[in-house]
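User: Batch of two.

Assistant: Item 1 of 2:
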Amino acid sequence: MLVVDRYVGVDPRFQSNARKARTRRSERRSPERAGTLADQRDDIPDLENPLFDDSQPIEGTVLTANPVGYGNPLPPLDLEPLEEIFPDTPLPPFVWEQGLAEAEPSTVRIGGEKEAATALAGDAALTEDVFENEVITGDEAVAGKSMPAEGEASLGNAMTVGNDAFSRNEPALSGNASLAPDLRAERETLVDLLAEYDLTLRSLHRQGGRLLAETDRGPLRVEFLEGEKALQRGRNITAALKHLREKGFTQCPEPRVSKYGERVIPWGDRAYYLYNKLPGRSAKLDASRDLQEAGRSLALLHRGGRGFQPVEPSVAAPLDIPGQFAWGRQVAADWLAMVGRQRFFSDSDHLLRENLPKLTERGEKGFAWMEAAYQEKRKQTEQEGALCHGDYGAASLLKTQRTFWVDRFNHCRCDIAVTELAQFISNIVRSSRDGWKEAIYVVEGYESVEKLTEADWRILLGCLIIPFDLFEHLEGKIRTEPANTIELIPDRKLQDQGFRRTRRTIETCNRAYAAAYRLAAQAELALPI
């Protein structure tokens, strides 16, 4: 038997007859919305509308339009022609071929993550409070995005436009940009400076305290030195870069030569040198492969720097480790004498008095263990010549798919190569408790190019053992604390800040010693401690 369902749609057994609750109560409604829609319609008069009435009007009757606001179009505005309102102002010509290049001067600036565009006219200065990067344009500026910053990838980019069009044939706006005061002065200098290279300045960017100039032949990094011996230092830097590239280390800047044959140009109290923007992005030394590659790049730099002699030896003085250790020893003695005259001691002082004898004894033994090897290596370096970067680390490395590029040579000097390796390892091991593992990766990468001798190992391990961080901390306490007494600080948080700084300093010294102990085991050497 065929059963036919008589219900179509929803089964009434599953329907709910309960009414849904209102979202708003009538007494909470605003007065203008208190009535229903039907009540509001009753208030509107039912007037005839001839526009939508199909019936023909009766002869002799006059149709009147409904008031404005009841569905009728607005009445036409009785406007005067523009020629009568502004008789002295001619109308702008309407020409299809006219581009944006003939428009009024303006500047477009785009913040990276905020995606905000602002057009400013006149000479109003733009500050860093509005945009993260500062950008200026010249009279022949072009439209184009700013190059990404080296090491500041999270900063917002900026874009400036000017008279001409970019190579992509994009329209541009004309006129000078509204500049920050310091960049406006830099722009005026660089316009004349680039003329000696037959280059034209398009825009100028400030990225992390450094200058990046967009020219008609690509982006250039602008480096300058200040001081009385700025020109001599600049000549040493350019000579070092030239020496490295001639010896096969090409992962470094190549200074441009002006049309007069100069690599360093003195300008006022500064000395400028320019080079092409290096490829790559900011390096993060958090993987074993990156640490090995960083050590390998440092070894290649030291191998390429063999035989380098500075043009101006007076401004390229090497590090004086014996002098620094003698200074640290005197600082420790002065602090002990100062504390001995005090009547009260803070938690920081108690911690220092407990650990200072052990750390200073460790430093004395480590320096005596490395002193002979250091003096011998010093004489060899002065005779044969060598080159150190001076500030080698993650901030001076740019990572590409294959290798690292080395930048920021403003502190390069003629010095023992292994002392720079020790300084690089010391900066790495201070950041974490397992820094000794990272130190081993760096040494493995370095020894893949240059094998360390026993004298090199002694200098490397001795520099890690000497507590230079402790000496700097003691000098800071001598400058800030009184000589005869100590102030009782009632706030416990302030006392804890000094205690934490002291404890952190002692911990960094112990981390460096732990790294020296692990590296000594790898080199099969016995430490004197």
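Item 2 of 2:
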Amino acid sequence: MSLMRQIAWLVLGVVLAALVGAVGLSTLSTRALMQTQLGLKNADNAQSLALALSQQQGDVELIKLLVSAQFDTGAYEYVRWRDAQGRLVFERAGAPQEGRSPAWFRAAVPIQAAAGVAQVSSGWTAIGSVELKSHSSYAHDALWLASRQLLAWLLMVGIVAAVLASLGLRRIRRPLDAAVAQAEGVLAGSYGQVTEPRVPELQRLTRAMNAMVKRVRELFEAQAGQLLVLREQVHHDALTGVSTRRHFLAELDAALQRDDGPAVAGLVLVRLRDLPGLNARLGRAAADDVLQTVATALQTYPASVPGCRVGRLNGGDFALWLPAAGVAAETAHALADALRASLPAFGAGVQVALGAVELPRERPSPVWLGEADAALARAEHLGESRGGFVVEVVAQAGVGREQGEGVWRAQLQDAVARQQGQLVTFPVRDRSGRVLHLECPLQLQLEGQWVPAAGWLPLAARARVTASVDLFAVGLALQAIASDGQARCINLAPASLADAAFLPQLRDLLGHAPQAARLLLLELSETAATEHFDRLLELGRQLRPMGVKLGLEHAGAGLAQVERLYQAGLDYVKLDASVLLGVAGEAGRAAFVRGMVIMLRSLALKVYGEGVVDEMDAQALWDCELDGLTGPWVTATR
């Protein structure tokens, strides 16, 4: 039994005990008073009757007449006249009167008043005595009425007291419930503060809980700060601040594997020509300044365009990944113009070659790097003859859809309306090989072909129909879960959360399959936490009571920059492939992953790894104590 319920029963017991005690004590004291008064009445009436009888000078008939008159004018049980020897001479008696009080009350609270006795004389001669006793039914009636009135008043007082006690208990319970919710939030990874109540004891409890939560939050923030420092050391070049070669290539592989990128993208390679010669002519410090200038020009793009990635491949080679079609050539020429304006300040002989390529995103990363490197080699060759900043661009026809937005929208809406979709499953397994859940990307049948998410998701985002497509995918997942009972994961587009009708429709859809909803996982990309945190918070607030688990995918170092991640109410996080690839061969990357796991575990989150392609990386990730892995290696080996 809960503490509040125990207190409520205790208060109720005290009120009832007080009520019963007050009614009982009042009834008994009133009965004693009535017995005394009834006894005095009997004695007074007996004296009065004896005085009247003494005036009759022993006339028997007159005495009998007066006794009868006394009996008839009062409520008496009996009136008796006895002679001087105590023998009964004359008696008038009546049947007992029941009155209005119930029999159980008369039996429980009897009124026994003493009979009144007085001596009768004629002159100085005693001629007998008179004895009378009044009926007690009238006294019982009066006592019954008084007890009922007292009980009614006390019941009213008890009801008012119970209401006031309930309000008081509710006031006490609010801070207790808040403290319990706060403690449960800490277990769930949410670190909120609670307003301190005015009750001193509860105020101390709440203050201690707030201090503990603040301490845990500070530890989390300190750990997040340490991870940012470690990330800078492991993933970024110490001189220029851009990604190292290993990390950039991991980011490139991860970008090519993701479903939410464009069908065609671009890659620009920038080479600072003759870096050893620059070191010899200008000195190392000046050559470092030249490298930093090139890196600064490249970093303007990630700062303004989400998804852009910049890396230093080796001494004087840099790379810029552009997640958009038709901008590689323009970007390369803009970079050349910017460097042409800034680099001559370091002296003559500072030259740059640029090679750009646009390819379909399904091409593997070696093809991207090979094509871009070939373009860079041609640009460098032309630069020798032209003596300046040369740009070479190679563009291949993509697989992107050339129709207008209206056509895309109509095709996507038609596929959803006709239920022309299927879920492809990829397992997420723990270390023992057990399937934790299935990742289920949606394929849509467009123009008679099954198109994976990478083909239609960018079009759906541009046509603003991601909400209906996501609802369709959730419906398919719920049907599959109801069929085999296997947990499934559906990825939601962040754009769907911006649709005001999406969340109510999603709740209604889940409400029709409450059992299957408890095995459903919904995940969003890391940008949902970094750019749309309030929407993520609202999604978790409405769906968690239904048993749906919520997670983030493609998560990397950006999580450490989310100020209120501990309030998001997440269940798990999937670390991005760009963070995990190559972890077996680099101790620094393994340390960063281990730090991420420790930070996320402090928020009571499960941590999974995605995009695992190598057995050695998988073993290194198990050593980092991840809860599960997914990717080509996991799918192929099981």
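The CA atoms of residues 290 and 596 lie 35 Å apart.
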